[in-house]
Amino acid sequence: MARIELKGLAHSYKAIPSAPTDYALRPMDMTWEDGGAYALLGPSGCGKTTLLNIISGLIHPSQGRVLFDGKDVTDLAPQQRNIAQVFQFPVIYDTMTVFDNLAFPLRNRKLGEAEVRSRVHEVAEMLELGADLKHRASGLGADAKQKISLGRGLVRKDVAAILFDEPLTVIDPHVKWILRRKLKQIHQQFRLSLIYVTHDQVEALTFADQVVVMYEGQVVQLGTPQELFEAPAHTFVGYFIGSPGMNLLPCRLDGDAIAIDGVRLPLTAEKAQRARAAGGELQLGIRPEFLRCLAAPQPGAIAADIEAVEDLGNYKIVTARLSGQVMKAKLPEDETVALGQGWLLLPPARTRLYAGGRAID
Amino acid sequence: MRKRSFALILYFLFILLPIYWMVNMGLKTNEEILGSFTLFPHAPTIANFRTIFTDPDWYTGYLNSIAYVSMNTVFSVLVALPAAYAFSRYSFLGDKHMFFWLLTNLMSPPAVFLLPFFQLYSSIGLFDTYLAVALAHMLFNVPLAVWILEGFMSGVPREIDETAYIDGYSFPRFFLRIFLPLIRSGVGVTAFFCFMFSWVELLLARTLTSVDAKPIAATMTRTVSAAGMDWGVLAAAGVVTIIPGALVIWFVRNYIAKGFALGRV
Amino acid sequence: MQKTVNNKAWLLVIPVFICVAFSALIPLMTVVNYSVQDILGPDQRVFVGTEWFLQVLQDDDLHAALIRQIEFSAIVLLIEIPLGIALALTLPTGGWRASLCLVLLALPLLIPWNVVGTIWQIFGRGDIGLAGYLVNALGLNYNYTASPIDAWITVVVMDIWHWTPLVVLLCFAGLRAIPDAYYQAARIDGASPWAVFRYIQLPKLRGVLLIAILLRFMGSFMIYTEPFVLTGGGPGNSTTFLSQYLTTLAVGQFDVGPAAAFSIIYFLIILLLSFIFYTVIQNLGKGPAS
Q1: What are phi and psi of B157, to 5 degrees?
Q2: One domain for residues B171 and B217
Q3: How many domains does chain B have?
């Protein structure tokens, strides 16, 4: 178990990076607390696997340092950092039994057989692999094999962190939740540091205590699933998380208020000032869950054209057009709204202002 | 690291010495070859090479060989790919027997097939065509291709196929865009071996052709005349026959050397 | 890997089946035909049953050739396979160096086999060949036309020169097909280079090695052109292997019956031994199933 710090970390595959786009990972500082369960969430190519491999030592960063519990490990090889990694597809030693697979990392460290045996049995119990110990690993299903991969990490008592690189990709959908639950159990039981890379927000939000959202090589937000949902720091976070994602409405600043279609939504003077200073395109963000649809106008409500209402069982999705922009709202199943002329209300408490993609608080 | 490079250099030296000797011989006259030991030709002559490039028997033979060998390589690989996939992914009636039986075609010397093939291809009017030799060579190249490709395909986890279907890929798209790139090195090496085995097969090629599609084989074996063996021309021919194959492996080098690039499925 | 049962998969196999069956069955029928008849004249064929088979099996010269053949194949396999694996492990894995190595490796394979024999014929001569000259210059008395041992060594070295690249290319391609993640996992697990070879590389090379071993076994067991051109089977018949013996029987003595009978026996020997290799290698490292 270890506290992992990244200081001034950046990585470029080019020898001399000149523009921000040359970086696979833009310069960052970050701390991963000991025993935390983190998800690294982002679309393909955003740099999350690069970051993971830098933490595990499989890639040496072109800039910056990696510290485990204060010790600089940037130049250390993976086996010296004492981490474990579970890959996208099951990596097991085909010719060995399950037992030997789990024992492998311990035997390489020259542990005594008695201790090897006890550790392996302990981990096998925990992962419900006890019955298969004598079987050849190659004959088992993908989910069992991933458990073995995980087991090889757990089997080392002093493992600093376990890193997961989209481990459920090749697992049968019906079985995914079993593994996810097992991971959570393990985390609760051992309080190991776990870092889980995924592009699936559901996985990230259900697994992690803290989620790191990445976009184009940058970390855009680090927070709990709730924070990410309620207070996205970046339009990308708003868009990526939630289904459907956050509505983004272009707007403009009119004195100390936002003006849309003749309706003025007041801001505090400081906020307006910060928005002006930040520059960039101004957008209002509101999640479909919080956008209210009204049949009759109220103060602050903006006229909109309700185009469609889809009934999806226990909720409804309303598609409306406001000021030329398509907006979606989520209504509970017992509410509805008529098609045609309607009004949309953006509750100030739930509405966020973004300038150039970044939130203005 | 130094020991490695040293060992490799020794081995490549071992490979190159006879080749260099062959080039050496190609540039000498028969008298000089048989007369004395010289590291470089005392009187270098390009007469041997000139014979090859100017004597129509030689250069048309060369072109003919390239034609049927290319045809054979393409056919063999194309026919083998679906079969290898079937053997790798499915079990069906008689599959294990069929798979081993394929190999039995490599267990008889081609000499056994000479007469029957000659009669067969003559009777269907394919005698002395590229097609005849290309098809005849499939006898040994197709089983080889199936075996090699099956081996590489079985190295790709089944889960990748399944994930692709879940992600909505149709089979052709999956096969071309996901599966084939994963077995790139296998395809590259298969294509090269099909080319190579067909290229050096002289007996069947000579038997099934006479004028139109005559390969280098016929002329190669014609180098024994009343004056004795024409060493120089034979050596020069040897040098020239290396070139197409070297080009083939150059073209597939990236397939062979790049391996399992598992991207995000 | 679990395979799904699907008899429709036969459809994918049919093109291959047609190509190969059609090329194989016809000659087979012809050979069997010849092996059980004695052709005394154009219209005089006498069915002799197993007479040719018995004659052939009792031929002492045949026994001698068979033993020589087995020795040759054994030596050649024992050298080429480990050497090929070792070289494949040592080759550079990318860039211009790998490309250059691949091209150089291909060269011996591309030379028509009679030219290979011819070149080595001159190459090995003490008076006019580079190798012969060098070896004699080192003080060893080397003459492959006079000494059976020298002839054997020359044939073996020629075969190694000619065919090791086949093994190297197959193993090289096989190694490239191993996903990086396995090596990464091994590094994380603290595995030594030997453990990486034993538990990752060798198991994953099994398919490719099977092909290499079978190809080299069949190739060496049926070898004809190169030794024939190099030594003509001599001195005496010290390098007369099975294929040459068979050809002499059929062509030289024009004894079609015994030759056909022997072809069948020849084929069956290769079949049997190949099957043994195949079964052993497939089951190697397949311990208790789950």
Answers
A1: -60, 140
A2: yes
A3: 2
Question: Rounded CA gap, C186 and C192, in Å?
Answer: 8
Decide if C4 and B89 are in contact by the 8 Å CB cutoff.
yes
B263 part of a folded domain: no
Q: Which residues of B touch C8 (CB under 8 A)?
A: 92
Q: What residue spans define the domains of chain A?
A: 4-239, 246-360
Q: Is C263 exposed, middle or buried (0-12, 13-18, 19+ CB in 10 A)?
A: buried
Domains of chain C: 62-244 (1.10.3720.10)
Q: Token pair 């203005």 is at which residue?
A: A360
Strand partners, A247: A286
Shared-domain flag, residues B224 and B185: yes
Using the Cβ of A78 and the Cβ atoms of chain C, whether some distance falls under 8 Å is answered with: yes
Structural domain including B146 reads 55-257
| Residue B189 and residue B85 share a domain | yes
A264 dihedral zone (left: phi>0; alpha: psi -120 to 50; beta): beta
A119 contacts: CB under 8 Å, gap ≥ 6: A106, A111, A155, A157
C-alpha–C-alpha distance, residues A269 and A111, integer Å: 66
How far apart (Å, rounded) are the C-alpha atoms in residues C229 and C238? Answer: 14
Contacts of A142 in chain B (CB under 8 A): 157, 159
The verdict on residue B34 lying in a domain is yes
- Per-residue pLDDT at B228: 67
- Cβ contacts of residue A171 below 8 Å, gap of 6+? A142, A143, A146, A179
The residue written with tokens 């002006």 in the block is A276
**Cβ-based burial of B207 (10 A; exposed 0-12, middle 13-18, buried ≥19):** buried
The alpha carbons of chain C give a radius of gyration, in whole angstroms, of: 23
Alpha helices in chain C (DSSP H): 10-35, 51-57, 60-90, 95-110, 113-123, 130-137, 148-176, 180-188, 193-196, 202-204, 206-221, 225-231, 242-247, 256-283
Question: What's the sign of the alpha-carbon dihedral C91, C97, C98, C100?
Answer: negative
> What value, to the nearest 5°, has the Cα angle with vertex A164 and ends A158 and A168?
135
Residues of B in contact with A88 (CB under 8 A): 262, 264
**B105-134 pLDDT, tens digit each:** 888 777 677 777 777 778 888 777 888 888
Q: Do C185 and A135 touch (CB under 8 A)?
A: no
Residue B202 in domain: yes
Topology of domain A246-360 in CATH is: OB fold (Dihydrolipoamide Acetyltransferase, E2P) (2.40.50)
Please give the Cα distance from C52 to C275 (Å, whole number). Answer: 26
| φ and ψ at residue A250, rounded to 5 degrees | -65, 145
Class of domain A4-239: alpha beta
Q: Is C65 exposed, middle or buried (0-12, 13-18, 19+ CB in 10 A)?
A: buried
C176–B258 C-beta distance less than 8 A: yes
| CB of C172 closer than 8 Å to CB of C208 | no
Mean pLDDT of chain C: 84
Inter-chain residue contact B265 with A169, CB threshold 8 Å: yes
In angstroms, what separates the C-alpha of C10 from chain B's closest C-alpha? 7
Q: What is the ipTM of this complex?
A: 0.87
pLDDT by residue for chain A (361 residues), tens digit each?
A: 688 888 888 888 877 777 777 788 888 888 888 888 899 998 888 888 889 989 988 888 888 999 988 889 888 888 788 888 998 888 999 889 999 999 999 998 888 899 899 989 988 988 888 888 888 888 888 888 988 998 898 888 888 889 999 888 878 777 888 888 888 888 888 888 899 999 888 888 888 889 999 988 888 888 898 888 888 888 888 888 888 888 888 888 877 788 887 778 878 888 888 888 887 888 888 899 888 888 888 887 888 888 888 888 888 888 988 888 888 888 888 887 888 888 888 888 888 888 888 888 7
Put simply, whether C172 touches B (Cβ < 8 Å) is yes
B9 touches chain C (CB under 8 A): no
